[in-house]
Amino acid sequence: MPIELKTLLRSNFQKDGAKGTDLAEPAEVRHLQEALCNYMTACHVLWPFDYGPLVILRVLIENRWGEAAGGDMRERVGLVTRFFNEVVADNSGRAVRGEPPLDYEKVRAKWTRQVELAFPQLGFLAGGGAAKGQRSGKETKVAAGAAGKSGLGSGPRAVHNGRPVCFAFNQKEGCKRQRGANDACRDPNGKLYAHYCNFYDRNRAMHCLAMHARCANH
User: How many domains would you assign to the chain?
Assistant: First the structure.
């Protein structure tokens, strides 16, 4: 059975979520770390040769427990929680089918995807670089640092009329967020992300920024 990270919190040990009891949510990184430790301990007792929890731990350590989210603790906790829940659910299904847990590369890919979905403003990851004169050196440095911490690469992001370009819009799957304007989507916090091409032309040292998706035109 798949299990959610919050059910492994110490504060929820005496609660029965199946009976409608409200479970506490993790609020800090230390809560995430303790919950994962509890998960690893339980799995080791039940299935000593299950390496799935160790792979999750490795990916989280490499990515500094969600530092890609910056100083927003709620975003950071949410990122790690969604990643954990997705991997565990996938591994549960694989166990039912008699398959081994996801290996390191597949789990790392799930982390990358979660970061892309949560922070589409890191649109530069697809091409690297930024349009000339679109951002200050300080902004470029901050964006590069965030990407490096996320384990996805480094470089400034694409920006159109002051709005970060939506990363998901430029992928094959397309953007699933709510429309915020004729040429932009809106995240849950109300921030707009422009639906323009984030392909980076290294010869011209600038992004395409045409009103089409990169995946279908470059």
Answer: 2
